[in-house]
């Protein structure tokens, strides 16, 4: 699966454990040129240090997906520097911490708005920004979780946001398909990342997956990276509007 000559944008690298980083590494190894974004100065150094370990020089740009101005500035810069885009990896999500520990029924209007805006609407705005740059078709991928379909302890409003995200994948796939732009989601099993640590009881969820998933182990970051590479590559050229599970098969179990 070669990506030689392909240009991609990756959002959501916070550190070396990030799922976005796993996909960025695989894409870079396959020959892609990358632009990586960071949210706020706090993460800039991290992203620059990680990017320096890739074989090629990457473009490092700021982007808070909650800001239309920053999203617009990002695509203006990409147009100026890269000229074209072949893929986008969307791996950003956020909900206020209290919304991921108290009962869902207590979710405030503001927590709901933030979670849906940052974790779901951002895919729509990024797809709209990328569309004119994907002049030779393209692949947009996002990261979701089983909590979109089933109740998982403390996932709460993030599950509702992921449901909106997965539905957006289908509508975007329909809108952009005629331009040969594919839109898919990876539904990853739980992986211990910064974002995951914000979910109360996350370690217990890891234990349940190890015990009950058909593969009897937890999902590895590299497995998500490999599937990301597949969905970006031409090997997945017939797949769009899909949610692909990389969870050791956990989602097929009834108990
Ligand atoms: P992560 O390393 O913490 O990545 C989450 C990223 O989202 C961080 O870089 C974070 O930046 C960024 N982000 C949050 N708000 C943002 C904003 N307003 N603008 C731009 N970026 C923003 O955790 P991860 O687990 O790899 O998460 C990546 C994606 O995978 C998320 O969509 C997550 O829901 C999904 N996912 C994760 C798992 C899992 O178990 N880890 C399973 C299934 C799906 P900050 O650190 O600055 O907030």
Secondary structure layout:
Blueprint: E1 7-11, H1 19-29, E2 33-38, H2 41-51, E3 59-62, H3 68-81, E4 87-90, H4 109-130, E5 138-144, H5 156-176, E6 181-188, H6 194-197, H7 202-212, H8 221-232, E7 243-246
Parallel strand pairs: 1-2, 1-4, 2-3, 4-5, 5-6, 6-7
Helix pairs in contact: 1-8, 3-4, 4-5
The protein binds NADP nicotinamide-adenine-dinucleotide phosphate (NAP).
NADP nicotinamide-adenine-dinucleotide phosphate (NAP) is lined by residues 12-14, 18-20, 39-40, 43, 63-66, 91-94, 118, 143-145, 188, 190-191, 193-196.
Q: What is the CATH top level name?
A: Alpha Beta
User: What is the CATH homologous superfamily assignment?
Assistant: NAD(P)-binding Rossmann-like Domain
Mean pLDDT metric: 97
Radius of gyration: 17 Å
What is the second-level CATH architecture?
3-Layer(aba) Sandwich
Spatial sequence of strands, sheet with the most strands: 3-2-1-4-5-6-7
Q: Give the overall silhouette.
A: globular
The helicity comes to 40-55%
- Low-confidence blocks of residues: none
Tally of contiguous helical segments: 8
Number of distinct beta strands: 7
């Amino acid at each position: 699966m070669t990506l030689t000559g392909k240009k991609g944008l990756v959002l959501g690298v916070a550190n070396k454990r990030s799922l976005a980083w796993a996909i960025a590494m695989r894409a870079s190894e396959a020959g892609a040129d990358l632009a990586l974004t960071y949210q706020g100065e706090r993460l800039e150094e991290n992203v620059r240090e990680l990017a320096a370990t890739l074989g090629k020089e990457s473009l490092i740009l700021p982007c808070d997906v909650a800001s239309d101005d920053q999203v617009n500035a990002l695509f203006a810069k990409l147009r100026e520097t890269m000229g074209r885009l072949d893929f986008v990896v969307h791996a950003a999500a956020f909900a206020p911490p209290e919304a991921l520990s108290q009962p869902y029924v207590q979710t405030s209007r503001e927590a709901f708005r933030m979670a849906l805006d940052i974790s779901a609407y951002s895919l729509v705005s990024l797809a709209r920004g990328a569309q004119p740059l994907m002049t030779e078709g393209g692949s947009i991928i996002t990261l979701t979780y089983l909590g979109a379909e089933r109740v998982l302890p403390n996932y709460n409003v993030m599950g509702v946001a992921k449901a909106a995200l997965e539905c957006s994948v289908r509508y975007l796939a329909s809108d952009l398909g005629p331009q040969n732009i594919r839109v898919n989601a990876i539904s990853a099993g739980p992986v211990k990342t910064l974002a995951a640590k914000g979910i109360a009881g996350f370690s217990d969820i890891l234990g349940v997956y190890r015990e009950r998933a058909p593969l009897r182990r937890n999902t590895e970051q590299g497995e998500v990276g490999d599937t990301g590479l597949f969905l970006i590559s031409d090997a997945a050229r017939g797949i769009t509007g899909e949610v692909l599970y990389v969870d050791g098969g956990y989602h097929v179990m009834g108990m």
